[in-house]
Amino acid sequence: ELYADSTKWYCDRGGDWQSHCVFDWRTNSSTVYYFLPDWGTIWTPQRRTIPGSASGLNLPAAVTDFSDIAFYRGNTNLAFIGDTQIWRTTNLTGTPTWTQIANTSAKIMALHVNFADGNKVYAVTSDQKVWISKDALSAAPTWTTVNLPTATSSRASITSIKSSSSVVYITVNN
User: Fold this and answer.
1) Per-residue pLDDT tens for 42-66?
2) Using CB atoms within 10 A of its CB, is residue 111 exposed (0-12), middle (13-18) or buried (19+)?
3) Do residues 89 and 47 lie in contact, with contact meaning Cβ atoms separated by under 8 Å?
4) The model's pTM
5) Which candidate among 53, 122, 158, 160 keeps its CA 20 to 30 Å from the CA of 72?
6) CA gyration radius for the chain?
7) Distance between CA 126 and CA 103 in Å, rounded?
8) How far is residue 76's CA from residue 68's CA, in Å, rounded to a whole number?
9) Please, are residues 35 and 57 in contact by the beta-carbon 8 Å criterion?
């Protein structure tokens, strides 16, 4: 992981470590969430304190890998994780409990929680769709899909604008 505090940058892994890493939104957070893409071996998703040791995310047994994890700045205990299903936790900093809130039946390439509204969650899938929930925190969230101009089999990203909950930017790559 490469991270910084107010004085300098740090690296606590070798240069050949190729895991996708995400830090949460807690003030002065020193927790990193990571996983390795499935290159023939399924790795258990982990989180760890920098510096420190790894611990699991307490994911349900059905979740053996995930494509992306997304956090919400306004609630540091809120997170979403996905592979073909989307799971939600509201107690991330303790021992997380996860609830399945969607099954996309396609590989999730990117997840995002809207910066302006924690109820809005977006998932870009490999089958040329973006899944959108405007009530992701409800007991039974509803989802709509919008077709994208092209499918993605390798990478996607999605982001929103803090000042407008109705604007998102999506990139996809074949």
Assistant:
1) 555 666 665 555 556 777 767 766 7
2) buried
3) no
4) 0.76
5) 53
6) 16
7) 13
8) 17
9) no
